[in-house]
Amino acid sequence: MSMAAGLRADLAPLRRSPGARPAIGVVHLGLGAFFRAHGAIYLEEAMQRSGGAWGIAGVSLLSPGQRDALAPQDCLYHAVELGPEGEKPRLVEAVQEVLVAREDPQAVLALMAAPNVRIVSLTVTEKGYCHEPSTGRLNAAHPDIAHDLAHELPVSAPGFIVRALQRRRAAGLRPFTVLTCDNLPGNGRMVRGVVLEFARRVDPALAAWIESEGRFPSTMVDRIVPATKPEDIARVGELTGFADAAPVMHEPFRQWVVEDDFVDGDRPDLGAAGVELVSDVEPYEHMKLRMLNGTHSALAYLGYLAGHETIAETIADPVFEGFVRALWEDEIIPAVSAPPGVDLGVYAGSLLERYRNPAIRHRTWQIAMDGSQKLPQRILGTLSANLAAGRRSPGLVLAVAAWMRYVGGVDESGNAIDVRDPLAARLRALSDGATEAAGKVGALLGVREVFDAQLAGTLLPAVIEAYGRLVAVGARRAASEIAQ
After folding, report:
1. Residue 178 shares a structural domain with residue 311
2. CA distance 352 to 326
3. Same domain flag for 242 and 289
4. One-character DSSP codes across 191-235
């Protein structure tokens, strides 16, 4: 049964008002809650302030769930700001249609190849790029990539991008800008590299055209968007009087930093909506990935093991507040170059306040998902920088050990953990294949998709010790030893 099955019969249906609707200018791959609570709102505000045909067509790469929820309500939905002072719903109208790629890949390619589409944006999560997280290279052995190289109707995000660009080139059209919005360092450069590797295997001339004419701006996105729950759907009905099967919930804070590099300069007036348009995104993305995402993941694994359901509950525990403060001050901020005009200490304080927001129930289990894809960007990059500088990183090492204990599939009380990760079965088998901390840690450090050999060898003794502390005293006590 869907979450919307319990909508009250007396609620009014969501319907668009008669009138002109913007033409599709953006195709978004991976139409999940985050983009609908972040990028779609920015694009809508840009059109409201400066006009332009930048309507959004969403594409679900796998599941029809989003389409089935949104299509009956004309693709309208509410975005609800959750702040300490209360809930603030707004109706979002930017999404015009939703397609399901697995049902009709031909329709998706035709849409992406249409002349009016100038941007293809993505939130497909780290694993959706079918790359090796430790290197950023295309994983040619990935089943979806192997399929897409052999068939003209793709299933993967890189496959759709390359095959759509192939159609545009054949039709004499300009390429679209590829605008990735996922939390990956150098995300524009990464997706460009993956796309070019794929294209070279399809047609070297196509790859040369994409390399010369295409644009892949890097971005940094930030807004906490917890998963929508059935009770949220019921609450939105109470707040608005409308039956909305697909609302999104979000914190008040938002940020979008975009490298201003689009094909022919053709883009919405993002600056009018508050987007920071810059020449170099790297300082912003490093700051966010290491200071926010890094501590989010550390708190997720340790907090979950300690029995905390959400980040707000975890940070309300003084041990974990002290732990995260120590992480920032001693291990993360020394490895971050501040963007222009940013005080990293002030930024850390703002993150702490966001984590404390009691209205945001961001589950530790949700953040812990896909850790094998997230760890290199969120934690291992900082660890590597500290090792190179001769700085100790006991808190980050403990976070790595907590991830290892988590993917072992059993929590501190002996309960099974539902581990969601592309490598979940393999990680569990490696953990189960050893009985002692040294064997488990050594086996997991051998996963080259996550840890490169040199880093793994350097980390081995410290992670074994940290894992041992987790087993001996538990996550909360181990974190308290860092916080002291």
Report:
1. no
2. 12
3. no
4. HHHHHHHHHHHH-HHHHHHHHHH-----EEEE---PPP-HHHHHH
Numbers of helices and strands, H then E, in the chain: 22, 13
CA angle in degrees (0–180, nearest 5) for 355-361-364: 75
Average pLDDT over all residues of the chain? 95
Q: To the nearest 10°, the Cα dihedral for 452, 455, 458, 462?
A: -100
pLDDT of residue 446: 97
Residues 260 and 298 in one domain: no
Give the H/E segment covering residue 372.
Answer: helix 371-375
What torsion do the CA atoms of 350, 356, 357, 363 make, to the nearest 10 degrees? 120
Question: What residue type is assigned to position 387 of the chain?
Answer: L
Helix, strand, coil percentages (3-state) for the chain, rounded to 5, are 55, 15, 35
- Domain of 469 in residue numbering reads as 282-483
Question: Which residue among 256, 278, 300 closes a domain?
Answer: 278
156 and 305 in a common domain: no
Q: How far is 154 from 146, CA to CA, in rounded Å?
A: 10
Q: Residue 7 above 80 pLDDT? A: no
DSSP lists the bridge partners of residue 13 as 243
Q: Domain total for the chain? A: 2
Residues 354 and 311 in one domain: yes
Q: How far apart are CA 37 and CA 9, in angstroms?
A: 26
Share of the chain above pLDDT 70, in %: 99
Domain boundary at 223, 243, 278, which? 278
Same domain, yes or no, for 364 and 230? no
Same structural domain, 28 and 96: yes
* Dist. CA 178–CA 192, nearest whole Å: 8
Closest to 403 measured CA to CA, from 332, 470, 461: 470
Distance CA 216, CA 121 (A): 10
Sign of the dihedral through C-alpha 360, 365, 371, 375:
positive
Instruction: Read off the amino acid at residue 34.
Output: F
The whole-angstrom separation of Cα 113 and Cα 111 is 5
Task: Inform me whether the pLDDT recorded for 44 exceeds 80.
Answer: yes
- Residue 317's domain is classified under what CATH number? 1.10.1040.10
Give which of 29, 155, 157 is closest to 99, Cα–Cα. Answer: 29
Q: Where are the beta strands (DSSP E) in 104-143?
A: 119-122
The number of CA neighbours under 13 Å toward the Cβ of 224 is 28
Q: CB neighbours of 165 closer than 8 A, spacing ≥ 6? A: 175, 176, 195, 199, 206, 209, 210, 214
CA dist 39 and 47 (Å) reads 12
Using an 8 Å Cβ cutoff, are 449 and 423 in contact? yes
pTM value is 0.87
The C-alpha atoms of residue 331 and residue 163 are separated, in whole angstroms, by: 43
Widest Cα–Cα separation across the chain: 67
Specify the pLDDT at position 1.
43
Q: Are residues 112 and 211 in the same domain?
A: yes
